[in-house]
Amino acid sequence: MVASRAIGSLSRFTASRTFRCTGYICRNFTGSSALRTRTHVNYRVKGDVAVVRINSPNSKVNTLNKELQSEFVEVMNEIWASDQIRSAVLISSKPGCFIAGADINMLGACKTADEVRQLSQEGQRVFEKLEKSTKPIVAAINGSCFGGGLELAIACQYRVATKDKKTVLGVPEVLLGILPGAGGTQRLPSMVGLPAAFDMMLTGRNIRADRAKKMGLVDQLVDPLGPGLKPPEERTIEYLEEVAVTFAKGLADKKISPKRDKGLVEKLTSYAMNIPFVRQQVYKKVEEQVQKQTKGLYPAPLKIIDVVKTGIEQGKDAGYLSESQKFGELAMTRESKALMGLYHGQVMCKKNKFGTPQKEVKHLAVLGAGLMGAGIAQVSVDKGLKTILKDATLTGLGRGQQQVLKGLNDKVKKKTLTSFERDFIFSNLTGQLDYQGFEKADMVIEAVFEDLSLKHRVLKEVEAVIPAHCVFASNTSALPINEIAAVSKRPEKVIGMHYFSPVDKMQLLEIITTEKTSKDTTASAVAVGLKQGKVIIVVKDGPGFYTTRCLAPMMSEVIRILQEGVDPKKLDSLTTGFGFPVGAATLVDEVGVDVAKHVAEDLGKAFGERFGGGSLELLKQMVSKGFLGRKSGKGFYIYQEGVKNKSLNSDMDSILESLKVPPKPDVSSDEDVQYRLVTRFVNEAALCLQEGILATPTEGDIGAVFGLGFPPCLGGPFRFVDLYGAQKVVDRLRKYEAAYGNQFTPCQLLIDHANSSTKKFYQ
């Protein structure tokens, strides 16, 4: 519920577009000169309705920071004190955002749980005053309404929202390792019912406006307007305001009731929730699901259940007190610090630090219509890029085009696209067997098989037809980019763009630069990746780059552990129990045994004995028998279409038995098995930073979590070292080094951090 959603779900916190409503909120003001100097919140009076405008300066989104909260309280006090004002509307000046949530930097600045608790109680007091306001307050929601923004909205007497794709509501605090701390845990259950409230708070799920209306989270919907004399966004905001003002007047005049008529199902659910036995069963069932899905590694979900239960069983006052206390406790946990670190890292990795490219990429060509090539094409046409998909065979091309169409059809089924939008997007794709149209390409992404001679051939063919400004990018997981670029006439235009499978679901894009890659080429690659919706890390060239290089020694250790007699199911259980979303043996099957063998051979040659561990013979025998993993139906497990629970492949027993090695008792406990895998990963990540493959620890953590499934609750390898302790990591490595040799020798960077208590990757 949480661990499985933590990777990737943070993306919705990122900003939308900027909008300035010049001169609008600054006219017809009443009040003192102090009012006119406000920078975050202002208001004007329309008849007897105060229209309160929220607009954080120099920011694409509104966040509930101290300045905004202070000005909001001032404004509301003036409204409550005025005899001329009978109701109010709260609206944002930013079309893509109502309020994106509280400013989590406020939490980062707190040193103790008590300081965080006080922040929570301040928010509770402000929103309780809103809830008890004798003057009706209408929240007019357009765009993102998350966290503290939704808590503010549900404290109002009425909510009107635009029926727009960009209007989404949610309480994603659980994804940051905390809980809604401004009354949300107490108001949501009574507003949408206990089951729906638990679902929202325990998953951090986004709720679209139409769904929010059905749930009772929103009272009225407003259709967005198209273009006119003004841009559509501006017209929609003005229309939303008019509608909200009308409802505010109606509420003040008692012509509209703030109480919503509930349907039969809601009434029955509400009746059932009034029965103590039923409630206890709900609590029990939800706790069981949370334990099963989080393995107890994430404390926030259980605290959310506890706080909600306290409010329902002991009353709202006890609930609010429990909410603020648990909010403070959670903000100080390692898990929260790790998850917040990932949030900050993701924000950083969604910016182009290389500047604006000289020429925008409008026409893209993808070479190879296999799983990866078709995936790259899908995430490109999806974002409006004119894309050519080229393959060597008609069969391969047809399969690739069908994959793109299936991905778009899935979105139609989920109602995130209309059939008209799907057809329009698909029209951006041109499938072909030749290089026609490549003379207009601004970028070519090559996604052919991992064979250097093949990549050399297509690079030469492409360079004969593309324009001078065109960037050539190779989607390779391990082949050094400088070797690919060796045959290029313009190596400054060659770059690596390593996508992860499935491309439409995996958020990470690893961009690889050589010493000859120009800054403008890098800027173009980053710009395309951002347009495709990716989280981007930029690393230096080298065998395995960063992600594959970190994964390879861990995979080698996986093979050794299997040879030592740990069966695949137990190994999977140990790794998921540590926080990995996919078990280690299953991961080999998912990656592909042939791919794992190919990478192990290449990196083994590059790094020698240090990348040793398990016998490569195990992978060779699996490949020879056709056990390639999920794609062939057999690997360590047997995979059958439509069968969810996979069974062990008994044909693997003889292979494992023939290659069995005796385990070493001192380093073979369940905990040791877990730490042998994790420390090899962490040590290699630190070595990449030490050698300059990585520019920053942040990119290392983002790459590990979003690309390789490193446990989000640990925050990535570098955050893990900071929180667990560098000395403890080095001690673990030394222990395993004594048993297995230089494969566990700690790198100098980790030793330096262990020798100095003040050295941290994150200050």
How does this structure look, described?
It is a single chain. Helices cover 50% and strands 11% of the residues. The protein starts with a helix and ends in an 8-residue tail after the last helix. It is α/β, with parallel strands linked by helices. Helix 20 (481-484) links the parallel strand 15 (471-474) and strand 16.
**What is the makeup of the main sheet?**
8 strands, mixed
What is the helical fraction, as a range of percent? 40-55%
- Average pLDDT confidence is 90
What sort of overall outline do the alpha carbons produce when their principal axes are compared?
Answer: globular
Alpha carbon gyration radius: 28 Å
- % residues in beta strands: 5-15%
Measured between the Cα atoms of the first and last residue, the distance is 31 Å
Q: How many individual helices?
A: 32
Structural class: alpha/beta
- Show unreliable segments: 1-35
How many strand units?
Answer: 20
